[in-house]
Structures are given as structure tokens and as C-alpha cells.
Amino acid sequence: MHGAFLTNCMWQRDGALVVELAGSYGNNEVQQFHRLALSFSVFYSRIEVKGLTDHKQLEFNLSIGEMQRVYDFAAEYFTNVTQSGA
Amino acid sequence: MLEALQHVRIDRIAFQRAICASSGGCVGLGAIDGFYSGYLAAVLAAANKSHIPVYFRWGWRDKELRPLYFSPVSPTLYSGATPPPTDLPSIKIEQTMCFERVLRSEPTSFGAVPSISTGTASRVKKAAYTLVARPPIPETRPTKSPHTILLYYRRGKQRPLSPTRKRGGGVFFPPSAFSIASLQRRSPRQRSQRPRLSTTTQSCGRGFSAGHCARGVFDQLHVATRRSLGR
């Protein structure tokens, strides 16, 4: 889940968090969104999704463990970032 | 371009090819109206250069580029591209290799994003926020601690799962977006307990899109978190 959709992270507020669900296939463009988020003062986390194996895939499944990681990122963010006033 | 507009005297911008001209998902004016119209309006406004014309080469055989303006005072965000108030002449493409300066970054394989300075990014972002009546996501910074966050789907979880909705060539459009909301206070004991997802509830089977699948999981998150809070 990247491309134009994830490019919108540049409009997020400073200090916001974006969590990318990235495919398990190699794609160097993924690096761009990490840099884009950092350039616009947005925290970035990436989760590799096993069910997304091709760049043109329209649907994929998320496992419970992967969604748990999304939750963990969000919980850690709210605990360590927003409450510290960053 | 973001950085150059801030520091270099520029009187026009010419795109040698239309934005997203070669990608199957965003060909044509939709890409301009849906994203780049607001993007260019914000970028130009951040540099106080909303008055300069932007030229697009719409077709690969086109030799003449016609200008558009992307102004924050356009009627709506989605029709930010307006024809010039005066009849500007088109410009012709000529075969030339002449660069006043080249912006590049290391590694050079994927773009120049790291060359954007913090100040430029901040100015562009502030200009973009002025283009919309209200920032799309309200400020939700907690004022008291401790807090926890509940992730849930906007639609009532009592309603049955509906079939995946597809429009526009198989692109998935969720009925509404996921939301991060309901910051609620937790006791120190509750904070030490990390909510776990239940594996006995509905799993994501074949035929469900990512968004559809995630809805069920977010419902589980909601339930699991509420359970951990003793509600």
C-alpha cells in the first residue's frame, strides 16, 4: 500500500505517525516514502505483509499478527510521542 | 521543485510530460484534479509564486505546451487549475540540453526527496492547510495522561459484513475510513496489560479485500481493548 496513496503522508501534521503495509516483494521505491515522511516531519513505520506478494495485487489478507503490529506501533506512538509532547 | 521555488527566481514551470502519464492507475486529468491541483497550489503558494504559469506536455507527440495556473483562490480545491487571465502564448519544445542547475541527492536511484529542507516542507504544509476549510484530521493530542487509544471502524460493528464493494476497474473503495479516536483514560494496571487480538473470532478469508478484512480485525481490536479496560 504505497504510491500516490501513501504520498499523502506529506500533508500529515508534524509529529504524526504513518504505518505502511508493505509487500513482501522487493521494491526499492519503498525507501522513498520513508524519506518523504521524514522530510515532512512525520514518523514512519513499516510492516511487511506476507499476503502482498506482487506490486499490482489488488487484494491481500492481513494476519492477526500483522494487525497486532499495527496496534503496537500506534500504542507505542501514543505512549512515547504524544504524551511526551513531541 | 519544492526547494528550487523557495530559493531560485522562477518565472515558469514546464513539465516535459503530463504527471502520471505512463501509469495505468492515474492517467489523465483525474490525477491533476485529484491530487496535483492542490499539491501545486500549495507548493506555489508556499513560495509566493502562485502567479507563475505551469506548462504541461499532455501527449508525447505534443510540441506545444499550454499554460495553467494553480492558485489557492480557485473556486474549489479540486478545480485549482485555471486558464491564464491573459492570453499567454504557448511555448515550443526544442531539443536542448541546458541546465542552469541540477538538484540531486544520494543515493540517486530514487528521487530527490531528501533534498527538501525542513523549512520548505513546513511552509508547503502550512500553505496546504490554508487551502482547505478545515484540516482533514482534527487535532487530537491528549491533554492528560495516561491515555490509551481505541481503534475501531466507523460503522456499527453489529451490522453484518457486506460484500466487497468494487468500482472503477476493481479498485477497492471502503465505505468509510478507519478512524483513530476515543482517547480514554486507563489505570496504571490496565496500561501494563497490552490488549491482545482474539484469534477465535472471525478470520480474514479469501474474497475479502484488505480494507474489508481490516474492518473485522479493527472490530476485534475494539472489543479486545474494551475487554482489557473492563467494559
List keywords for this structure.
heterodimer; A: 86 residues; alpha+beta; two-stranded parallel ribbon; 3 helices; 16% strand; flat; B: 231 residues; 2 domains; five-stranded mixed beta sheet; two-stranded antiparallel sheet; 5 helices; 9 strands; 27% helix; globular; disordered C terminus
Give the domain tally of chain B. Answer: 2
Low-confidence stretches of chain A: none
Distance between the termini of chain B: 52 Å
**Helical residue percent of chain A?**
25-40%
What's the quick description here?
Chain A is an alpha+beta fold. Chain A contains 3 helices and 2 strands, in the order αβαβα.
Describe the structure.
Chain A is of the alpha+beta class and 86 residues long. Chain A has one domain (4-82). Helices cover 38% and strands 16% of the residues of chain A. Chain A has 3 helices and 2 strands; from the N terminus they run αβαβα. Chain A has helices spanning 4-7, 30-39, 64-82, and strands at 17-23, 43-49. Chain A has a two-stranded parallel sheet with strand order 1-2. In chain B, helix 2 (29-46) packs across helix 3 (118-131). In chain B, strands 1, 2, 3, 4 and 5 form a 5-stranded mixed β-sheet that branches. Chain B has 2 domains: 2-131, no CATH class; 147-228, no CATH class. The longest helix of chain B has 19 residues, at 210-228. The interface between A and B is large, with 36 and 53 residues.
